[in-house]
């Protein structure tokens, strides 16, 4: 599944905007944010093996888009995948209740505090186009931690191929772009700058019918 040529420029504009471009450095904890994309768990396992953190929390219940693929919950399936990739059982915690990014952050923080695990730095592992929203949410709800964002380092076309559905990826990109502004206005996240080129690409894609994920 490939991107239509007439949409490629606008899709890439949004894709590049959501990539925070953070340089990875070791952190106290890795947090894998639940979604339909099992690549999040793959990335978390790879970073664990690279020594980026000593422990992973996978967080996520289900959404309508994930319940069929992950019937026991996103975080549970992520954990199983990470164990298959060689992450030790005692290095993985599961937060199975969160149903949105705000709950991912808040419930993970509560879980770690309940275990007496002190955290000053985190690596948030997400889908590539969720990085900016995850960062803005974490800065709002957990401002005292140093936060770095990470995703599988796949080029756009390779990522679309791994998902197998270009329309789904575009709809997600458009939805996440809208949420950068809307969630800041609602107090769910900190404000993020949005260049005019990004806003214009978003408008064109939304007007082209990629509106399934708009709030």
Automatic annotation (TrEMBL):
- Domain (DUF218) spans 41-148
Top-rank taxon? Bacteria
Q: Which GO terms describe its cellular component?
A: plasma membrane
UniProt-listed Pfam families: DUF218 (PF02698)
Full protein name: DUF218 domain-containing protein
Q: Which organism is it from?
A: Amycolatopsis keratiniphila
